[in-house]
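Box S1 | Example of a co-folding query
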Amino acid sequence: MTILYEPSRQVAQHFAMLIGGDVRTAGSLDETHMLLDEDPDEQLVLFGPNTPLMEAVGLAARFRLARPALGVVLLRHSLEVNVLADAIRSGVREVADVNDPTSILAACARSQDLSRRLTGGSRAGAEPAADGRVVTVYSAKGGCGKTMIATNLAIALASGGAKRVCLIDLDLTLGDVALMLQLQPERTIADAVPVADRIDETGLRTMVTPFCPGVDALLAPVVPTVAEQINRELVTEILYLARSMYDYVVIDTPPVFSEHVLAALDSSHQYLLVATPAVTAMKNLRILLDTFDVLDYRKENRLVVLNRADPRLGVTPADIERVLRIPISNHIPMSRDVSISINRGVPIVLDSPTHAVSEAIREVASKRIGAEMASPKGLKSMLSRRAKR
Ligand SMILES: Nc1ncnc2c1ncn2[C@@H]1O[C@H](COP(=O)(O)OP(=O)(O)OP(=O)(O)O)[C@@H](O)[C@H]1O
Ligand SMILES: [Mg+2]
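Box S1 (continued) | Returned holo structure for magnesium ion
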């Protein structure tokens, strides 16, 4: 069933006929909400051409987290770039040209298909419910240690190979995961593009690159322009599937607030926000935390990790907490051994599990994310089993 919101009755009739099937029409936003309340399983709301853009944006933002299976599709007379960007950022799935019936039908079909996938409908219960824990490592500022933390955290979460972890490089244009783990990007997330809408477990398994026992990496495309073909729906689809196959999914991100990052944050249980003791990084993080409030990302799921903590820099953790108005959950010290480990291509938690940086990351995994504490012995054995491969 579909809800079509359009104030003009004549226009509503035209689009109801075009879409066909069971369409319920609403003449106002209140009426749309009433219809949505009546049917909690409703999967598509179509905003007609005469509806205010802000109403579609508001409804999409409100239901993005509360009812992720609900798709919002917007019909517009002109597809201006800023309209598209605002709409998509708020969670509107598609914006279709009102004069192009084919693209309207295709947009509705894509949205309904995604909804079915999100509710597990198209899989007829063939696979286990998604229950892996998803952690996105993010910072709006570049170079503060996201990839270093994401790679080491993924290894720490694997608890010596007892747990399955998928590390996803969502820095689609400049991803560094392959470089940091010295993996050959023969298979990457780009392989998902031709099979978008129908990736299954086997498909995802062929796209990941094993790194060490328990840890697989889904690498960024080698050709950066492929990133344009990877849209928010595809990222959501991959994450949903990864959750059903792994105990933990760790997502490394670019330092921009892209639609891919938004898809990752929407699918995450925890947001690991990386701060560094620099004024600009703190200012960026404060703005980001305000954005998180607007987007309704729950406060209790936010972890602020201070990387490159160094008392000699003159900024105390108390100063940082005062600016950020949120406690710092963990401190990762500054150490040149981090750069050495990156240059060697062996993450520091594997190479030196008892190093202060490794201890801090293992603590994030165990105390903040709830994994079993990876023992130094277990980590060393991961390294030697990796070498034997
Ligand atoms: N705790 C640390 N101590 C010393 N150096 C560090 C530490 N953490 C990260 N670095 C250094 O900072 C550099 C940037 O780290 P990293 O690539 O993880 O950042 P990033 O946030 O992923 O960057 P980008 O935004 O470009 O993706 C690395 O070269 C690394 O050597
Ligand atoms: Mg990075």
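The chain has two domains: 2-123, 133-388. Residues 101-118 form the longest helix (18 residues).
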